[in-house]
Amino acid sequence: MSDPRRPADCLRRLILAAAILTAGVAPLSAQVGTPAAPQATVLRMTEAGTPPASVIYIGNSFFYYNNGISNLVAQMLTAGAPKQALRSTLVGIGGSGLDWHDVESYFRPNAIGRYSIGSDNIVSFNPPANPLFDVAVMVDCSQCPVHPDLKDIFIKYAKRHAETVRQHGARPVFFMSWAYADKPEMTDQLAEAYTRAGNDNDALVIPAGLAFSRVVKQHPTIQLYAADKRHPSLAGSYLAAAVIYMTLFDRDPVGLSYTAGLDPETAGALQAAARDTVHDYLRH
């Protein structure tokens, strides 16, 4: 028998309605929300065979710690789908919220994404693309979505940036960040805030914060945090990347050979937590 006081049971009770799709956005399917979020629409990214080929990550140090979330996701995709091309770019401002970013400027021609530096340290120029990016993954500052003086700004700029991204032919995606190590109550607060933002803007939400909570409960010996109890350790960044990998590309991270230098047992536990969290949140 379910207990309405338990977050997991609250999560299961919220079945969300099908999406009203924005013009130019690929068909997506309905999903489940978070403990306190109202019934609305949270979306799934891909149809079969249509994963994104280009991604821009827009955020802060949560994204650029440990050599960058974009690099970790790209390495996972290389291991899991070596024939699938991916061009990714990270725009990070330390300590930033969504209101610090001029997202319109990130889509100007012949600027961001114009060239890449490969693993051989050779510069290659990317052919012009329209849209410039298929997906924009955005994260606010670690407290902004739930801070009493900043949460309205989060709502405002989530809407503004989602509209800007769509105007440039890309799909907006929100990255649900995690609770501080010593403030676990932030998990449900952030989950609700990001799910509401996804619902209100017909945008996919990547449930990284829920994956952090799962690992803390199931594998307390795995250290997901840096010493400041806020930023991710390598294991934390790897977990977040695995959640992105499954959410954006609809690929199971379990069994990936790429471990970012983590021991296989730890990497396997993080891969499984990412898979299970996405399954629960997106109702695969």
Question: Can you describe this structure?
Answer:
The chain is an alpha/beta fold. 36% of the residues lie in helices and 11% in strands. The chain has helices spanning 7-13, 61-64, 69-80, 151-167, 186-201, 208-218, 234-249, 264-282, and strands at residues 54-59, 87-92, 115-117, 123-125, 135-138, 171-175, 204-206. The strands form 2 sheets. Strands 2-1-5-6-7 form a 5-stranded parallel β-sheet, sandwiched between helices. A two-stranded antiparallel sheet has the order 3-4. α6 crosses α7 (234-249), α6 (208-218) packs across α8 and α7 crosses α8 (264-282). The longest helix is centred in the last third of the chain and has 19 residues, at 264-282.
